[in-house]
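Sequence in, structure out.
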Amino acid sequence: MIGDKLTYHSAYKNITRFVISELKDRLINNSRICISVGGESGCGKTSLAYALIIDIENEIGCKGYLFHGDDYFKLPPTDNHNNRLVNIKNVGINEVKKDELDNHILDFKKGVCVIKPLVIYEENVIVTEQVNSVEFDFCIVEGTYVSALAYPDYKIFVETTYLDTRKSRIKRGRDLINDFNEQVLEIEHQIITPHYKFANVIIDKNLKIITNK
């Protein structure tokens, strides 16, 4: 995903420390695991995923790769938005190549070279890039619908809603804040909310960690 600049946020340190404690043995034993971070737009899933990559690399010495769910949309960003304008019922998990992403995670875990899509936001195009999986020890996949994937080994769900993140979305400035886009987010909210049940751990809007037994 080209277009977003990732920044390390120390506010996630307690979360990354907890996740590392949960997965340390598997990481040390080269289990080639995949961690997913799911949640609504603007909830901080990309930043949390990046913080996990950095902290696991620094504390365990493993090298991680970050899969972005946005790369797996069937249409590039502007085209996808226009498709939603044609019919708002197009919003949903069917916009994403979910099975392809799942298969790429499985291939990554097997150490198979992955040829994956890559979105370039400014150009509104989807190109491809090659990931030599054997160069990495683990992966993290972040995105709106990744909690519904089959092959992540450990799932994190950020339960912060689009209403909670309105101010941060305005600050991010990537999407227009208007009635139509808010309708889109409400539809996504209805789809995503039940995904908490798939998670190993839930992060609430105050960054509190809730284990999902």
